[in-house]
Design goal:
Blueprint: H1 5-24, H2 42-61, H3 63-74, H4 80-87, H5 93-112, E1 119-122, E2 124-128, H6 129-151, H7 161-170, H8 172-178, E3 188-193, E4 200-203, E5 210-215, H9 216-223, E6 235-237, H10 239-247
Parallel strand pairs: 3-5
Antiparallel strand pairs: 1-2, 3-4, 5-6
Helix pairs in contact: 1-5, 1-6, 2-3, 2-4, 2-5, 2-6, 6-7, 7-9
């Protein structure tokens, strides 16, 4: 998939603006609504995004300081995201929304003036500036999904799904190693229906025996661990493809806990 960096940043901005606009119209009480992430309310999803936007900006502007601050943060334990959430529960919804809005705008501006190929430090392996932007898009989409689920509203479809799906495919080997599994030698073909168009996004050889096909949004829900594969309209063929989707993880960090099947059949 060829990189269109300008389009990528436009997708980040669109996903951000939609989430921010939805939050501006939400009541203060709504910010305390529990989300699918255990122990996290909507307020915690937004403080998480703002906090790590600031870390992403630090990685762009001061790599040495980022490494020092990241080491201190990780020293708090593998549950440091939960600890960060606790740290900022004192903030009001207005303060949280202003923080997220300002941090996100500053980060997008920094991305736009940087070399997308330049390498940056992050939690885990270094990544390019373009990969950092893609990661922020993915994080915004995933945590935004938690917010939309909590509010009981649909997640607006976006062309940014393609970049997130690409991240989900490209982390195939990473997800296996992260879970202590041998990386399969056989490839998986992924064919996804783009939102609101007749386009099909594809990865992998077209003659692969293992295949994943279906709506792009459903695939992204799985690789961000927001839905169990059985609760989507994805068609999965082959043991390797099925095993992969059980552990697929498009984000860095410790192995995710996955998403349990719904009690009712899909």
């Amino acid at each position: 998939m060829a990189l269109d960096y300008t389009a990528l940043l436009r997708d980040v901005e669109q996903e951000s603006d939609r989430l921010i606009d939805g939050l501006y119209s939400s009541s203060a009480d709504a910010w305390e609504t529990p989300t699918p992430a255990a122990g996290w309310a909507i307020r915690d999803q937004i403080s998480h995004l703002a906090f790590f936007d600031d870390f992403a900006h630090l990685a762009l502007t001061d790599a040495d300081q980022f490494r020092l601050d990241a080491a201190q943060l990780m020293a708090r334990g593998t549950d440091f995201p939960d600890r960060v959430a606790e740290d900022y529960r004192r903030l009001s919804p207005t303060e949280l929304l202003n923080w997220f809005t300002e941090s996100r705008n500053r980060l997008i501006t920094a991305f736009a003036t940087d070399d997308p190929r330049r390498r940056l430090p992050w939690f885990g392996p270094d990544m390019s500036v373009a990969s950092s932007a893609t990661a922020r898009l993915m994080e915004t989409w995933a945590h935004g999904q938690d917010v939309y689920d909590a509010l009981g509203v649909g997640h607006p479809l976006s062309s940014g799904l393609r970049s997130i799906a690409h991240l989900g495919v490209s982390t195939f080997a990473f997800a296996h190693r992260l879970n202590g599994r041998q990386v399969p030698e056989e490839p998986v073909r992924v064919e996804l229906d783009a939102p609101d168009t007749n386009e099909i996004w594809t990865w992998g050889p077209d003659d692969a025996m293992n295949r994943v096909t279906g709506p792009a949004e459903d695939f992204v829900l799985v690789v961000t661990q927001r839905r169990h594969p059985d609760d989507t309209d994805l068609t999965v063929e082959g043991d390797i493809a099925a095993s992969w989707l059980e552990i697929a993880q498009a984000y860095a960090g410790a192995p995710g806990r996955g998403h349990a099947r719904r009690i009712a059949a899909h």
